[in-house]
Amino acid sequence: MSRRFPRKLGLPTGGGLIQANSITALHVNLELGTGNVSSTVLRKDMVNLLDFIERSKNGRVQIALDMDQAETLTLELTFISVFFHLFCAVLDDEMICLSYEVHNLVQLLFHQKGDVMLAKLMNHSVPSLLNNIESYIRSHDFSESSATKTEDHLVEHLDAVLVYLQYLPKCCAELIFPIMTQYELLQNVYGNLRDFHELKVNGCVEYDTIEHVLRQFQIMVQSVGFFCLILLRCQLDERDENDEILVRSQVESMLANLLVDIIPVELEVMHICSTNLKASKSEKVGCFIKQLQKASPHILREYLIHLQENMANIATDSTSTRNIHVMIEFLLIILTDVPNDVIHHDKLFVLLERVEELTREVSICVSNLDNNLRNEENMIDKRYARLDSLENIELLKKDLKHVFLKPPEDSSQLYFPMSDGPLFMNLLLRNLNDLLNSNAYSVDLIKEEIMLVKEGLEFLRSFFGNVEQEFDKDLRTRVIGLAYEAEHAINSIIVRDHGLLHLIFLLPDTIEKIKLIKEEVPARISKSKGLTVGNTPSKPVEIKKSSTTGQIIVGFEEETEWIIRKLTSGPSEVDVISIVGMPGLGKTTLAYRVFNNKSVVDHFDVRAWCTVDQEHNEKKLLQKIFNQVVGLKQTLNEDDIDEDIADKLRKELFGKRYLIVLDDLWDIETWNELTRPFPQIQRRSRIILTSRKREVALQGKHHSDPLYLRLLTPEESWDLLVKRVFGEERCPDELLVVGEEIARKCAGLPLLLDLIGGVIARQEKKKALWIEVLNNLNSLILNDEEEVMKVIQLSYDHLPNHLKPCLLYLASYPKDNYIKISELKHLWSSEGLVEHIEMKSVDELLEVYVDELISSSLVIVFYGIHDRNPIFRIHDLVHDFCLIKSRNEHLFDVIKSNAPSSSSDLMPRAMTIHYDQHLHSDENFVLFNPEKQNPYVKHLISLKVYKAGDVESWSPNHLRHLRLLKSLEIRQILLMDPLLNEVGMLVHLRYLNIWTKVEALPPSFSNLLNLETLMVYNSASNMVLSPSIWSLAKLRHVHMFSFSVFESHADEQTVLEEDSKLENLRILSGLKISDSQDTGGIFKRFPNIRSLRFAIKTSQYCPAEEICFPRLDVLSELEQVDANFHGEGWKDKYQCDLYYFPLSLKILKMTRFDLSSNSLSGIARLPNLENLSLQEVIIEGGKEWNMEDVTFEKLKILTLYHVSFSEWKVREESFPMLEELQIEWCDELMEIPDSFGDIASLKSIKVLGQRQLRDSALKIKEYVAEMTGDDKLVVMWY
Keyword annotations for this protein (predicted)? Predict the structure, then answer.
């Protein structure tokens, strides 16, 4: 569309007044008697203009316009028409001039024909008038019109604006479509008010009855008209794609504010109808009241939602404010359930009248509260802001139960999963505790009920310690069922999903049932047995141990040689060789290989193999070992076990060199019991231990470190698959490609390769069949439950209960994804998966959880090259298990964006969505479509949305109904102001990771009092964080692309309140510091911060002496710093010897700094520094780095990336504890100093770039091998 306005909304570009020649023409015409256009004539001109627009749309105007031109002209003329309807009553010279222009324009439309008229219209008259209107708008303030309209003018204005509201969706479809629901609400409200005013015009309503609202009608019609004008103005603007996103966001916010402003007028009309007009005998009044009552539930509900969001700007936490919020929650629960046919039909309108009156009271209270805050010096009496909400709520609750509501259906008809009751119970109680501590208004309504449920279930859970022996199973099942009912009821009330029935009937009934069971429990517990209180792992599943005999062995040659060397040489004392790894990796197979190796057999006097598995009778296991040692071959019966077997075994082994394999050991206690009889004499005896648990291997360690078994390489995987399928034959060439792909998809796990190889071996060796196997690989794996899933189930069952959901949560990430442990910790905490323990901080508990998960061997741990931060990855098999288990337990699910809504009664707690913009539409992305979404979507606690490809906005959807969310992660999708405002209403959020393009987060974010992690990728240049964000006391981690605490262009810097300290903040990343900004006051607000990433940004005109490095020494807990310097001409500009680091610092990364020997000496004196990374740094102007008098006492890792220096002098004492040296693209450096070869702690040198540095590193490696006799130094180059 060709548009006439090159300027953007709200961004005037100059001018101001209408051109002088226009004023001159005006005075000439006034003198001639032709320039004074009366308001009557002007209104007729508007009617004619609208008529022309309508006739041109219907094709009745014979002008040579193509469709685009016709559309543009129609839009421009509509804009002109709206403008004059709004401002024709303004009687200044400029408006008179404009009215003269529009009158001439109308005359042109109706009194000239042909191409000449069209050319004049398109190229002169309309553009000229639009420019003059633009100048007029920019030079006047129309925030509130002072002109009072006459009765006739008001009627005409009401009708005209209604026409515009009906027309705008056709010409402004792109702007209105994302906000169509709100726009239709505006049409509905405006139409009702216009119809009500018509009752007054027709004499159906007395003037005295509505006199007090007529002024509000004047303001309302002006506000709606101005909104129409702005919509048209936006449609006419020329904008790029980025501005389009911003304008849509502004329009949506404007509409929301408009609704909050005008719906109170409708509330007054509702009040008049239910009081003054209730007894009216007028048929028209009766019809209008029915029309209003029918529309009122939707109008009231949307108004209260918008009012609730707008109250985020009222920064007060007074009792009055909380009472208002609680009443809004209560009213919204009622209004949301009105369409659900839960109210007696003959009582509906009576209930609505009460709800309307309470909504009106809330509206008045909010208005007065807002006025109080705006006029603190003339404080209005606070009694106007009071609302007796608790009393009103209790009264209405009684009437709802006994008068208005239909009795609910039996809640037992709902389906509740029962597969792992204790797991669910633990998660529920943690969640209830979080709700009680959340400070959320929605919880205030039922806080007492939540407390009763929590106390009752905690009491009953205390009897779950040993269910099979101590607690009646039927009673246990009933308790778990009630726990599900309680959670469902509480969540349904909070998210307003049939919340009214749950609030009035089902939750109180569930509480009564819990009370009855509490009274019943003591009589059902066996008095002859003590109670076991606590949580123990569930009984592990029994699986059949596969034999290792005859298994095909591929790979692990180096590991085999290492174990044999450990078995046949080394210390004379007993040593333990532990083989640790995930299930199915081949631990037992490897142990069996070395156990039967000839050199091993010949080396030992006696050998014994004991598969421990799930056997917990240590004497029986010792008897098996004894029988092998003495050569007994018969099967062992229970009656054959000797009570003195431990002593007999000790005597039999004494004086002999023995090798004993303890295969598949699960716990330390069993290890201690089994090894107690083994003599500790110096005969070079050995024990081989295989386990999935690292803690068991570490407990058993004597001399040798545990061997952590790796996955097979792709080549080894293919080799194993070929031998499993073809034996000693070779694979046909036609099957090579598909076969190698099958092997690759098994991801190096021998168990899977053996399983799939068995399937293929039973089929014909045809390519089509192999392709079918490849395409159905997942189903083949998952169908073999006995051989695959139960292998993982065994490890899962041995996890402590608190760790099970933490493991399952890993499947919410895509397969083959590397998971940052630091990020995972934040997510675990936000999901409520951390069980709080006295005397233990959250950080300490998270470290324990990570260690326990690593020990289980169900995760694979990697370390980053530069940052050394550990990351997790799980095998596809473990991922599949966790995903299946999570779906069964309704913990979370993974779906595509075009997937239909689930039809199950219960949605999972969490959901991961892989968003596809090609499949996405309002019709099929039902999760966030308010019309089509499954109501149980509202019960989500965690939501992740991943989108591949380009970043795009996401305006047509809503998030405000996901009111239980604790964790929200949306990547590659921009959330703009309206959606961000909705995010700010998700008061239970603990973890937030979003993308946006705004200059500041909305005030509603001050509601997120439970937020612990805030991660924002802002595609705008920089974001300014308001002080309200820093009032979120629970914040632990803030990470942004780039943000400032102060606005760089502000005349006065924002001042944080003296007591606004974030005591819990540990990580702050993305802070931008400009020029000489004093940061001491900022950092004092974060006294316990441990990790800081920031950038110093300067302009090219900033003098070097004004650039100051921040005073970080005020942060006594700081352990990690990532500092970056940005500024034009940085190499010549930033020279500073003073860097203020705290003594606690352990990790330091500096990028783009000019460092001197003095400054590096200061860094070296940091007593705890372990990791130093210098990137794009200049040292001494690119010359010599002399470290002969400098010592980094504790430095273990040194990384140099694009560092400019040509010579390096180092002594052995410079890095006494250095373990890793990494040098990348240091092109000016010719060699690595030879003295690095004398550093005993050095383990590796990594080189990327210059060949001479590689040669230098290899020379050091040769020197170390020659001096120590051990080729221990690892050198890597790329």
Answer: ATP-binding, Cell membrane, Coiled coil, Leucine-rich repeat, Membrane, Nucleotide-binding, Plant defense, Repeat
Mean pLDDT of 843-862: 80
CA atoms within 13 A on the CB side of 1185: 26
SS (H, E, C) 923-946: CCCHHHCCCCCCHHHHHCCEEEEE
Report whether pLDDT(1188) > 80. yes
Backbone angles phi, psi at 1200, to 5 degrees: -120, 120
Which residues does 595 contact at the CB level (< 8 Å), separation at least 6?
A: 607, 609, 659, 661, 688
Per-residue tokens: 76: 């421009």
Which range (245-254, 341-350, 927-936) has the least confidence?
927-936
DSSP H or E segment with residue 1018: strand 1013-1018
* Rounded-to-integer distance, Cα 1270 and Cα 1273, Å: 8
Residue 1142, both tokens: 């705290």
Query: What six digits make up the tokens of 261?
Result: 């402003």
Angstrom distance (rounded) from CA 261 to CA 914: 39
CATH number at 869 reads 1.10.10.10
Q: Rounded CA gap, 4 and 2, in Å?
A: 7
> At 1072, which helix (H) or strand (E)?
strand 1067-1074
Report the C-alpha gap between 962 and 968 in whole angstroms. 10
Q: Which amino acid is at 755?
A: L
Domain finish residue from 788, 823, 852? 788
- SS3 state of residue 239: coil
> 517 with 570, same domain?
no
Enclosing domain of residue 741: 732-788
Count CA atoms within 13 Å of residue 161 on its CB side.
32
Q: What does the alpha-carbon distance between residue 333 and residue 340 come to, in Å, rounded to a whole number?
A: 12
**Measured distance CA(158)–CA(198) in Å, rounded:** 10
Contact assessment for residue 964 and residue 933, using Cβ atoms and an 8 Å cutoff: no
Tokens representing 460 are: 């009953």
pLDDT digits (tens, 9 = 90+) for 981-996: 889 889 999 999 998 8
Q: Cα separation of 820 and 579, whole Å? A: 26
**The sheet that has 819-820: what strands, in order across it?**
819-820, 870-873, 860-863
In the prediction, which pLDDT does 814 show? 78
Give every CB contact of residue 131 below 8 A, 6+ residues apart in sequence.
none
Report yes or no on 724 lying in a domain: no
Tell whether 765 and 833 lie within a shared domain. Answer: no
- DSSP symbol at 776: T
Q: Place 652 in a pLDDT band, splitting at 50, 70 and 90.
A: confident
Is the dihedral angle over the CA atoms 120, 122, 123, 129 positive or is it negative? Answer: positive
As a whole number of angstroms, the longest Cα–Cα distance in the chain is: 133
Question: For residue 671, is it within any domain?
Answer: yes
Summarize the confidence of residues 405-415 as an average pLDDT: 68
Q: How far apart are CA 964 and CA 938, in angstroms?
A: 7
473 and 587 inside one domain: no
Domain count, the chain: 5
Average pLDDT over the chain, rounded to whole?
Answer: 79
Q: How many residues in the chain?
A: 1278
* pLDDT per residue as tens digits for the range 190-225: 999 999 999 988 889 888 888 888 889 988 998 998
pLDDT of residue 907: 62
pTM of the model: 0.74
One domain, residues 776 and 812: no
Collapsed DSSP state (helix, strand, coil) of residue 1073: strand
Tens of pLDDT, residue by residue over 555-564, are 788 888 889 9
User: 683 with 824, same domain?
Assistant: no
Q: Is residue 818 in a domain?
A: yes
Q: Is residue 474 part of a domain?
A: yes
Query: Are residues 466 and 575 both part of a single domain?
Result: no
Contact criterion met (CB below 8 Å) for 712 and 541: no
Residues 655 and 697 in one domain: yes
Which residue(s) pair with 914 in the sheet? 896, 946
**Residue at which a domain ends, from 755, 788, 821:** 788
The answer on 515 and 607 residing in a single domain is no
**3-class DSSP assignment, residue 952:** strand
